[in-house]
Amino acid sequence: MSELIQLCLDEARENMELTLHHLEKEFQKIRAGKATPQMLEGVCIDYYGTLTPIEQLSNITTPDPRQIIVQPWDKSILNAIEKAILSANLGFNPKNEGEVLRIIVPPLTEERRKELAKSAHTKAEHAKVAIRNIRRNANETAKKLEKDGEPKDEIKKLETNIQDLTDSYISKIDKLIEAKEKDIMTV
User: Fold this and answer.
1) In 3D, which of 73, 92, 31 has the Cα closest to residue 82?
2) CATH code (residue 84)
3) Exposed, middle or buried: residue 105 (CB in 10 Å: 0-12, 13-18, 19+)?
4) Fewest CB within a 10 Å sphere: which of 108, 119, 124, 147?
């Protein structure tokens, strides 16, 4: 196998791996019953005119599976953090205790669990589309390599390897969504 063909395959594998890692991070944001600091990822606070992620402005801990404590380093932004959490529409109602925000994570209703499972399926579908786009780009690169003089049988082998790689990553995504759905639906 030539160096260019191996490079094409390695690039496809690397991009598919990045897509899988991104999906795993997205799944961490979807709450499945117990509190985690990742639930507040993506919440941004207007800090002196700059939108700043909450994790850069405060210490976020989970002392038990039902609550999250947000302790800002600058106490003057406590109200701004509270408003940002409320406006993020995460289903949380933070309680301002003067120095910290205490968020009691409510138990999930059956309806909310189904919504979260649906959201997880949507994210998984987006990841599958990304994997297929990576496959398409790799196959286009293979066609260009064939035009540039690479042997036809090597290109066919490359296309088969790309398809095997795609099938493997689609299967990994299916396993991830299955596990996440089980996690969400478990009371």
Assistant:
1) 92
2) 3.30.1360.40
3) buried
4) 147
Amino acid at 4: L
Q: Which domain holds residue 157?
A: 3-29+109-185
Distances (CA, A) of 39 to 9, 22, 70, 152, 181: 35, 15, 12, 50, 17
**How many structural domains does the chain have?**
2
Q: What is the tens place of the pLDDT at every residue in 11-35?
A: 999 999 999 999 998 888 776 667 8
Residue 153 sits in the same domain as residue 91:
no
Give the global pTM: 0.74
| C-beta separation of 165 from 12 below 8 A | yes
Tens digit of each residue's pLDDT (9 = 90 or more) over 156-170: 999 999 999 999 999
Q: Which residues contact 89 (CB under 8 A, 6 or more apart)?
A: none
